[in-house]
């Protein structure tokens, strides 16, 4: 067993959460780190609870994209206007600012 293999049991995987570069005209999203088109990865990746202004007990799924350009998870929440109607809004601290993110209403209710 190498040091890297044994140390991986002690370190939690990190997640980078950034504001996606979203083009509403093209309805396309791009990773701000590498510029890759991430539109096809749309889903509900999770945002760590400590980034949310709403006090939740667990990580929260948000409507958005993900990118595999780094060794860690890169989560890119979608702008709230791009989310389906059945999603609700929660405030998150991303890139040094507070922005609204869309989350499934049942998930937010369960996490609070």
Describe this structure in words.
With 112 residues, the chain is mainly beta. The protein has 2 helices and 9 strands. It has helices at 3-7, 105-111, and strands at residues 15-17, 21-23, 28-30, 46-47, 60-61, 64-67, 73-77, 87-94, 97-104. The strands form 4 sheets. It has a 3-stranded mixed sheet with strand order 1-7-6, with no helix packed on it. A hairpin with a 4-residue loop joins strand 2 (21-23) and strand 3. The longest helix is centred in the last third of the chain and has 7 residues, at 105-111.
Furnish the topology, listing elements before pairings:
Blueprint: H1 3-7, E1 15-17, E2 21-23, E3 28-30, E4 46-47, E5 60-61, E6 64-67, E7 73-77, E8 87-94, E9 97-104, H2 105-111
Parallel strand pairs: 1-7
Antiparallel strand pairs: 2-3, 4-5, 6-7, 8-9
Estimate nothing, just give the exact number of structural domains: 1
Structural class per helix/strand content?
mainly beta
Largest sheet, spatial ordering of strands = 1-7-6
From the N-terminal CA to the C-terminal CA, the straight-line distance is 41 Å
Q: How much is the average pLDDT?
A: 87
The coarse silhouette is globular
| Number of H- or I-type helical stretches | 2
Uncertain stretches: none
Radius of gyration: 15 Å
Q: Helical residue percent?
A: 10-25%
The SSE string, one letter per element, is HEEEEEEEEEH
- What proportion of the residues form beta strands (DSSP E)? 25-35%
Short description:
The protein has helices at 3-7, 105-111; strands spanning 15-17, 21-23, 28-30, 46-47, 60-61, 64-67, 73-77, 87-94, 97-104. It is mostly beta strands and 112 residues long. The protein has a 3-stranded mixed β-sheet, with no helix packed on it. The chain has a two-stranded antiparallel ribbon with strand order 2-3.
């Amino acid at each position: 067993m190498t040091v890297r293999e044994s140390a991986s049991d002690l370190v939690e995987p990190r997640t980078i959460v950034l504001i996606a570069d979203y083009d509403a005209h093209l309805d396309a999203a791009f990773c701000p780190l590498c510029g890759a088109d991430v539109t096809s990865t749309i889903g509900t990746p999770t945002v760590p609870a400590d980034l949310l202004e709403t006090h939740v007990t667990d990580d929260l799924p948000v409507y958005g994209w993900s990118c595999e350009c780094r060794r860690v998870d890169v989560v890119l929440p979608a702008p709230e206007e791009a989310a389906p109607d059945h999603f609700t809004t929660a405030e998150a601290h991303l890139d040094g600012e507070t922005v609204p993110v869309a989350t499934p209403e049942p998930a937010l209710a369960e996490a609070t």
